[in-house]
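Thread title: Can someone regenerate the structure for this chain?

I was given the following input by a collaborator and told the matching structure tokens would be attached. They weren't. Posting the sequence so someone can regenerate them.
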Amino acid sequence: MNVFEAVKQYVTTRQAAEHYGIRVNRNGMCACPFHNDKTPSMKVDRRFHCFGCQADGDVIDFVSRLTGTGTREAAVMLAQDFSIPYEDRAPTGRSRPRPKAPPETPEQQFKRMERYAFRVLSDYYHLLRRWEKDLAPQTPEETWNPLFTEALQNKAKVEYLLDTLLFLSMEERASLITEYGKEVKRLERRMAELTAEDKTGRDRSHRRSAPAPER
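Best answer:
Regenerated them for you:
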């Protein structure tokens, strides 16, 4: 399958929307990112449709509009972000070079930064909730796990930041992104390091528990 066929088969618009930081409620509705949507008016499932501005299309159309890129660039981005294999068949004969995507407008740049901040903070918040639940001490004498302590210290702050991105004015959201931009990048790096350490630990445990080869 080429990249367009592969992406459309394996990724729904809802999955893409949530991956890029758009909050979707249990009914599949979200605030439309393509107009100033005060209440959720977009339905996302395998495709998307906004009942406010009438935006409509498939997952590739959605990401293309969301990022301001062409449909192929959007399809390749989805394939990379969701680890989807595809055949990259080179076109036969000579073809015209693709025009470069226009530079981002300030509004597009802000929306991209806002989605990035929401995604990182949301991932970190879910980690904090898991640490608070799974690593809580079982007895008063037990030494507190540092990750449990971190969850207690940071959960309320992250909840406040997420609420700001979801419900407050654009000026307040822009101020938050400016103030906490470096911290959000630091959190993303730290979560990547924790994931790598966790994977290394699981690999080592798997090698130790693997049965010896028969002789």
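Residues 3-81 form a domain with the DNA Primase; Chain A fold (CATH 3.90.580.10).
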